[in-house]
Design goal:
Keywords: Membrane, Transmembrane, Transmembrane helix
Low-confidence stretches: 166-177
Number of helices: 7
Protein name: Energy-coupling factor transport system substrate-specific component
Order of helices and strands: HHHHHHH
Helix content: over 70%
Length: 181
């Protein structure tokens, strides 16, 4: 279900900020896209309100930084190679920001998250570019629904790991409470 956060966040950013065509728009549009995506992910992962806020903020900061760096590196070009590079850089930055939070929950496996997201987001742009073609010339902040579905499938293990770890922690806590009574 988190895949909806990608096109919804990107579309809102496009409507509110305008096209991705400068560092200020990259930062503002990337932050807005990231906030919507982070909120969708936090909701889907079942984070508490206390856990959701850092996730939303880290996703927003990571996406803003990644979009600004990636767009600058590619000089705002929308050819296939540039979009794949933009995706890889943005995914790497979002992954780095999120992994700082994940490390407490999943341990050192969180260090692989930036690499996973870099590859997944590059693939997301590649698929979206193939599906929407010339529409990418409008300078969107993030790939469309087709890319979002691919990224959601590639990154599916994260919510499964988080759910499994949270369930194990709750069972362990219940055992401790039960043995203390």
């Amino acid at each position: 279900m988190t895949f909806l956060g990608y096109p919804v966040g990107g579309y809102l950013a496009f409507l509110i900020v305008g096209p991705l065509d400068s560092t200020p728009t990259a930062l503002a549009g990337g932050a807005l896209t990231g906030a919507v995506l982070g909120l969708a992910q936090a909701w889907a992962f079942g984070f508490s309100r206390r856990g959701a806020l850092p996730w939303v903020l880290s996703t927003a900061v990571g996406l803003a930084a990644g979009t600004a760096i990636g767009a600058a590196v590619t000089t705002y070009a929308t050819d296939t190679t540039s979009l794949v590079v933009l995706g890889a850089v943005t995914g790497l930055c979002v992954g780095a920001a999120q992994s700082a939070l994940l490390i407490r929950r999943v341990g050192s496996v969180a260090l692989t998250w930036p690499i996973v997201l870099a590859g997944a987001w590059a693939l997301g742009w590649l698929v979206s570019e193939a599906v929407i073609g010339s529409s990418v010339d409008k300078h969107f902040y993030i790939f469309g629904s087709s890319g979002a579905i691919v990224v959601a499938l590639v990154t599916l293990p994260l919510p499964l790991v988080l759910t499994r770890r949270d369930s194990a922690a709750r069972r362990s806590a219940a055992r401790l409470v039960g043995s203390a009574s």
